[in-house]
């Protein structure tokens, strides 16, 4: 088999890249380790920046997003038992973020890919990117008991944090990493969101909490938990109790509870690999970087990588210019580090750190108070939350 761009991974990065390349007439094949249902079953991001929405439009797959996505003009911070709205739109000249689940975005991209008759090989085993330092790269994989070879011009490593792409250049990568001493347990439930107009971030002496949503009838909530906790430790009842105890009394009394339809624990990590290009192999999305979810940046950063990468590949095939691919890594990393900084900052501000003593705690309280009373710092939060300009 031969294609112009071999894409490893059918998460949002790989699917969006495939769609943008297809629209530009560039042929691509995606190799995915899991089944399509498995990919759709992973409940992750929920908040899209305008850049991501625009990219979905550019890819011609935003019809449902434009109908069902819910714009948010503000977020709320809860601390010391009180709510503090931050007028994200007012502070950014009218910008918004959009609530639309990663699952829905993935489904839209999968449907468009199927409708266009493009090839995605699901359950591809032992995928190996090879010869990407030459001008004849290839990817081998196993399927139905046979080894297959996919020849190509470029390989896009869109295979997430645990993928094979970054692993295959391990000795050429510098890794920057920070692991946080806690995780989040998340619950999805078919109940109306407690705050349909804002995403609520809470910092209480019991730890972080987050109230988000997927639609007017589907909510997504998280609470900070020790890394040693297991999902089995958290009955629905315990989760709802704990969430209420971390919010202000008014919000707590308005939470509509119901059975969880998904419940999972995710560790929090900051990670960047440098560079993101190795000859004819590129890393994009979580394959190259991870942010803790507090700033809602992971999927959005993946979308920006894909914007730069698709642009670079289109330029190469249409204009025979290598300018875009030569500057890909540098351009992405500039934006990635700004999002890393923001995600680290808001994570540090909103969580309880087990090893933080009196002084650190008092400084955190002072910063929260400063934030909600300072237009300068609120504006900084707002402009990062809606996404920095490309
Ligand atoms: P993915 O989604 O991990 O997809 C990678 C795909 O590659 C496949 N794969 C392989 N395929 C072939 N061969 C191999 N050897 C392979 N190894 C892996 C995998 O099966 C998978 O299908 O990476 P991608 O596409 O880069 O997308 C990144 C996003 O998924 C991620 O950044 C976001 O979910 C992060 N995130 C959030 N981002 C936001 O922008 N806004 C949010 O509100 C937000 N909330 C979140 C989040 C992530 C969370 N968790 C669980 C980490 C909330 C949470 C709780
Ligand atoms: C979500 O809706 O899952 C969500 C929202 C905001 C975040 C992280 C996750 O910061």
Write up what this structure looks like.
By secondary structure, the protein is of the alpha+beta class. It has two domains: 5-70 and 98-177 and 269-346, FAD/NAD(P)-binding domain, CATH 3.50.50.60; 181-268 and 355-386, 2-Layer Sandwich (D-Amino Acid Oxidase, Chain A, domain 2), CATH 3.30.9.10. The chain is built from 13 helices and 20 strands. The strands form four sheets. An eight-stranded mixed beta sheet has the order 6-5-14-15-16-13-17-20, sandwiched between helices. A hairpin with a 2-residue loop joins strand 15 (207-215) and strand 16 (218-225). Helix 1 runs parallel beside helix 6 (102-115), helix 10 packs antiparallel against helix 11 (323-350) and helix 12 (358-373) packs across helix 13. The protein is globular and about 60 Å long. The two termini are 36 Å apart. The mean pLDDT is 97. Bound molecules: 8-demethyl-8-dimethylamino-flavin-adenine-dinucleotide (RFL) and P-hydroxybenzoic acid (PHB). Residues 45-47, 199, 210, 212, 220, 293-294, 296 line the site of P-hydroxybenzoic acid. P-hydroxybenzoic acid binds next to strand 15.
Break the fold down into its secondary structure elements and pairings:
Layout: E1 5-8, H1 12-23, E2 28-31, H2 36-41, E3 47-48, H3 50-58, H4 63-68, E4 70-72, E5 74-79, E6 82-86, H5 88-91, E7 97-99, H6 102-115, E8 120-121, E9 125-130, E10 138-143, E11 146-151, E12 154-157, H7 164-167, E13 174-189, E14 198-204, E15 207-215, E16 218-225, H8 236-245, H9 249-254, E17 260-274, E18 277-278, E19 281-283, E20 289-290, H10 298-319, H11 323-350, H12 358-373, H13 375-385
Parallel strand pairs: 1-2, 1-12, 2-8, 5-14, 12-19
Antiparallel strand pairs: 3-7, 4-7, 5-6, 9-10, 10-11, 13-16, 13-17, 14-15, 15-16, 17-20, 18-19
Helix pairs in contact: 1-6, 1-10, 10-11, 12-13
Bound molecules: 8-demethyl-8-dimethylamino-flavin-adenine-dinucleotide and P-hydroxybenzoic acid.
């Amino acid at each position: 088999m031969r294609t112009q761009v071999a894409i490893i991974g059918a998460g949002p990065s790989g699917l969006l890249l495939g769609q943008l390349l297809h629209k530009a007439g560039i042929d691509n094949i995606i190799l995915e380790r899991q089944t399509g249902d498995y990919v759709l079953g992973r409940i992750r991001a929920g908040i899209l920046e305008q850049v991501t929405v625009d990219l979905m439009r550019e890819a011609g797959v935003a019809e449902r997003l434009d109908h069902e996505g819910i714009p948010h003009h503000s977020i709320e911070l809860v601390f010391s038992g009180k709510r503090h709205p931050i007028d994200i739109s007012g502070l950014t000249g009218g910008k918004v973020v959009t609530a639309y689940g990663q699952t829905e975005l993935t489904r839209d991209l999968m449907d468009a890919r199927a409708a266009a008759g493009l090839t995605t090989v699901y359950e591809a085993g032992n995928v190996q990117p090879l010869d990407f330092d030459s001008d004849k790269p290839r990817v081998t994989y196993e399927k139905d008991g046979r080894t297959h070879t996919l020849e190509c011009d470029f390989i896009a490593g869109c295979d997430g944090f645990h993928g094979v792409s970054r692993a295959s250049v391990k000795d050429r990568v510098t890794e920057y990493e920070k692991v946080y001493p806690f995780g989040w347990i998340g619950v999805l439930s078919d109940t109306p969101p407690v705050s349909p107009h804002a995403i609520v971030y809470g910092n209480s002496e019991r730890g972080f909490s987050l109230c988000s949503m997927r639609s007017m009838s589907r909510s997504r909530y998280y609470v900070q938990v020790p890394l040693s906790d297991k999902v089995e430790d958290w009955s629905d009842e315990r989760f709802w109790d704990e969430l209420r105890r971390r919010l202000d009394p008014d919000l707590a009394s308005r939470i509509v509870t119901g059975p969880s339809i998904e419940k999972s624990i995710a560790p929090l990590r900051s990670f960047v690999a440098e560079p993101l290009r190795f000859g004819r192999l590129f890393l994009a999305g979580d394959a190259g970087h991870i942010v803790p979810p507090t700033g809602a940046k992971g999927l959005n950063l993946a979308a920006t990588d894909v914007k730069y990468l698709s642009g670079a590949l289109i330029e190469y095939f249409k204009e025979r210019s290598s300018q875009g691919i030569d500057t890909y890594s540098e351009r992405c990393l500039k934006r990635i580090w700004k999002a890393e900084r923001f995600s680290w900052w808001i994570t540090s501000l909103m969580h309880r750190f087990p090893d933080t003593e009196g002084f650190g705690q008092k400084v955190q309280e002072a910063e929260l108070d400063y934030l909600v009373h300072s237009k300068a710092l609120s504006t900084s939060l707002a402009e990062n939350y809606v996404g920095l300009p490309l």
